[in-house]
Amino acid sequence: VQLQAFGGGLVQAGGSLRLSCAASGRTLSRYTMGWFRQAPGKGREFVAQIIWSSNNTYYANSVKGRFTISRDNAKNTVYLQMNTLKPEDTAVYSCAASDSGAWNSWGQGTQVTVSS
């Protein structure tokens, strides 16, 4: 499956952004979709995931209550709604897909910058 992420940008602290990850090549009914981020000088961090078939979601503690992951079957797209953004949310955000327990498909990253 090919993934393309977009929607990043510059926002002030307290603001919102919505990231999108469009998938092509396969339907996602067998997949778990995830968002990850990597801040400068840091390792990749898990942000959120959604199991496409059940719509079950899971979040990192650092974003719980502020971020929402969702999916659109018709558009084969997964979203990450990010509210109450903080400067520490600044990172390159990437989407990924898993159909075997491993994150084996990745989209390119999109930069999110939160100014204080």
Give the topology.
Blueprint: E1 2-6, E2 9-12, E3 17-24, E4 32-38, E5 44-51, E6 57-59, E7 67-72, E8 77-82, E9 91-98, E10 105-106, E11 110-115
Order of helices and strands: EEEEEEEEEEE
Query: How many β-strand stretches?
Result: 11
Low-confidence stretches: none
- How confident overall, as mean pLDDT? 96
SS-based class: mainly beta
- What is the global morphology? globular
SS field, number of helical segments: 0
Rg, nearest Å:
13 Å
Helical content band = under 10%
The major β-sheet equals:
7 strands, mixed
Strand proportion, as a percent range, falls in over 45%
Give the termini distance in whole angstroms: 37 Å
Architecture overview:
By secondary structure, this protein is an all-beta fold. The chain is built from no helices and eleven strands. It has strands at residues 2-6, 9-12, 17-24, 32-38, 44-51, 57-59, 67-72, 77-82, 91-98, 105-106, 110-115. The strands form two sheets. Strands 2, 4, 5, 6, 9, 10 and 11 form a seven-stranded mixed beta sheet that branches. A hairpin with a 6-residue loop joins strand 9 and strand 10 (105-106).
What are the defining features of this structure?
11 strands; mainly beta; 4-stranded antiparallel sheet; 7-stranded mixed sheet; 116 residues; single chain
How do you describe this structure in short?
With 116 residues, the chain is an all-beta fold.
